[in-house]
Amino acid sequence: MIAKTLFAKPLQWIVFLSLIAAGYIGLGKFSIYFSTMPEGIAIAWLPNGLLLTLFLLRPIREWVRYALVIIPAEIVADIPDFTLFQAIQFALINLAETMFSAFLIRRFSPDGHNFHNLRYFLLFVIVALTLSPALSAVLGAFVYHTQIESQSNFLAFWRIWLFGDALGILLITPLLVSWYEMKKQLSWRFSSWEQVVMIPLTLILAYLLFSSEFTPNLLPMTPIIFILALLWMSYRRGLMESVTMSVLLSIIAIYFTVHKQGPFSVFNGVQNTLYLQEFIATLVITTLFFSVLLRQVNEKTILLEKLSKNLEDQVREKTNALQMANQKLFELATTDPLTHIYNRRFLEERAEQEVSRAIRHKSHLSLIMFDIDFFKTINDTYGHHAGDDALIALTQTVISRIRQDDIFARIGGEEFVILMPNTMLDEAVILATNLKEMISHLTITTEYSTISLTISIGISALSDKCDCYETLLDHADTLLYQAKEAGRNRIVWRDNSAKTHIKN
User: Fold this and answer.
1) Prior bond to 80 cis, omega within 30?
2) Could you report the per-residue pLDDT of 184-217, keeping only the tens digit for each?
3) What Å distances lie between residue 490 and 145, 359, 369, 440, 459, CA to CA?
């Protein structure tokens, strides 16, 4: 949709194509007068980098328009150094080379124009820097050898054309594409010490190196400094800034080498050009390759972090769900579904533990057992719903009075047990008295009447004769039965002297 609406008006197209032509002519003149050795050997032909960028970024249906603009732009850039016929031939060769490169790169890298993509970068190196320049160099060398200068052999012209086109594309295309990709986030601000210190320092060092007289003992090591600096910049600042810096360093190296200064100026013209081209190619390709690999590693790391986080979230969700399920299962297995207090099974498990603990630590342990008087009559007279309401109301009343450490369980229809760790018999009697009093004042309102409740209670305590849960429960059950026999709404317990007490 954007491609259809962009430059929809003829005036916009005229302005855009004029800028392209001006840029092509400017880069052509720059290449001829700035990056050409005194012997006439071009170090880099920069306009092809602009052409390839256009064909990579713009729709294929627009390519014809660019071709129609580039031919006259090539003529303007080449004259008066070349004839009109020669300039037209150069334009057609450059167009064929860059179109062929762009077509293959776009065909086999459908993910888009992105030098952060390893596949895109490798296609760029293989096609745009090797295959296409090598093929176009055959035609370019033929033109040079047959129409311009025939003293050098065909192979020498082929090599000059190949390296010149490849370096021009290498210097311009990654720079323009990376800036295009970053145009919305573009921010060239001195925000770190690398920018404040390293960028000016690197440029100053390049100026001092390439503008100075050659010192032989510096040749093997000095250019490597810039490769290391760019690798550091790629690591710290990313592709756009490192590529920009590599282009600036290349321009400095080209300028002073053309003017016979610096480490690449001590040999003859062909050798100087060869060494400089190799240095620039190594500088830029190493920077690009490192940036691409670093981006791939970072993306994989981010992806792994996201996958790890997602996995952790899923594990956490599954764990929480499992814990909730286990908690639900535990509640179902240990809780009475009506009153939501413990059931008989849980009471038996905990009671064995509490008895063992009390015996081991020689502490007190008491058990209160009670049931609702005439509960069957309540169910028969008022219905089971009224009976359930009575059980729930009684449970809530007991819960409000007992301690958190006490274990309160429903062991039968209307039978309940309170197991009380660290509680003497006398303390259990006091609690039972309070509970009996509270429940006697409890009323349950039904649709037709109000129900009052009373309970009968039996209390037992841990002793030498009562040293396990089964005995505790049996004694309490026997005493509860005696409370029933004594008229209900009673508390019955037996002290250490085996004397039975009944309390109204």
Assistant:
1) yes
2) 454 444 456 666 677 788 888 888 888 877 655 5
3) 126, 30, 12, 11, 11
C-alpha to C-alpha distances, 59 to 1, 2, 189, nearest whole angstrom: 12, 11, 33
Q: Which residues pair with 409 in a beta bridge?
A: 342, 417
**Any idea which residue has 């855009």 for tokens?**
16
> Are the CB atoms for 55 and 99 separated by under 8 Å?
yes
Check: CB of residue 389 under 8 Å from CB of residue 431: no
Q: How far is CA 401 from CA 351, 405, 451, in A?
A: 20, 12, 21
342 pLDDT band, cuts 50/70/90, is very high
All structural domains of the chain: 1-183 (1.10.1760.20), 205-297 (no CATH), 342-503 (3.30.70.270)
pLDDT confidence of residue 389:
92
State the amino acid at position 77 in one-letter form: A
CA dist 43 and 162 (Å) reads: 10
State the pLDDT confidence band at 39, using cuts at 50, 70 and 90. Answer: low
Q: Average pLDDT in the 317-337 region? A: 87
How big is the chain, counted in residues? 504
For residues 302, 56, 132 and 85, what is the CA-based torsion angle, rounded to 10 degrees? -160
Listing DSSP states for 55-116 in one string gives: HHHS-GGGHHHHHHHHHHHHHHHHTTTS-HHHHHHHHHHHHHHHHHHHHHHHHH-TT-S-TT
Over residues 69-98, the pLDDT tens digits come to 999 999 998 888 888 998 899 999 999 999
Instruction: Give backbone dihedrals phi and psi of 270, rounded to 5 degrees, phi first.
Output: -65, -45
Where do we find the tokens 């039968």?
Answer: 412
Separation of alpha carbons 223 and 457, rounded Å: 99
| CA-based R_g, the chain, Å | 47
Pairing between β-strand 342-343 and β-strand 407-410 as defined by DSSP bridges: parallel
Q: In sequence order, what are the residues at sequence separation of 6 or more whose Cβ sits closer than 8 angstroms to the Cβ of residue 62? A: none
